Amino acid sequence: MPRIAGIDVPDRKKILFALQYIHGIGAKFAGDILAEAQVDPDRRANELGEHDLARINAIIDANYLVE
């Protein structure tokens, strides 16, 4: 399972929905994060590389208050 913001997210779900498993991130914020990270929201969480996960983590850490 990929870890994003210290949380294990489901790896078979599309990343747009997997991000919403993090308390404090809803559909709009998930879309905003992926747009800023330049990650296709239709990709599955287990298809993301370390570089993609690092960009998503950096954006969440810098801009969002999560669990």
Low-confidence parts, pLDDT < 50 over ≥5 residues? none
Query: How would you characterize the largest beta sheet?
Result: 2 strands, antiparallel
For the record, give the distance between the C-alpha atoms at the N and C termini, rounded to a whole number: 18 Å
Number of helices, counting only DSSP H or I runs of 4 residues or more: 3
Arrangement of strands in the largest sheet: 1-2
Percentage of β-strand residues: 5-15%
| CA-based gyration radius | 10 Å
Report the principal-axis shape: globular
* SSE arrangement, N to C: EEHHH
Instruction: Count all strands and give the number.
Output: 2
Helix content: 40-55%
By secondary-structure content and strand pairing, the structural class works out as mainly alpha
Q: What value does the average pLDDT take?
A: 92
Describe the structure.
This protein has three helices and two strands; from the N terminus they run E-E-H-H-H. It has 67 residues and is mostly helical. It has a two-stranded antiparallel ribbon. It starts with a strand and ends with a helix.
Question: TL;DR of this structure?
Answer:
The chain contains three helices and two strands. It is mainly α and 67 residues long.
Properties at a glance:
67 residues, mainly alpha, 3 helices, 2 strands, 43% helix, 6% strand
Give the SSE layout.
Layout: E1 3-4, E2 7-8, H1 15-18, H2 27-37, H3 50-63
Antiparallel strand pairs: 1-2
Helix pairs in contact: 2-3
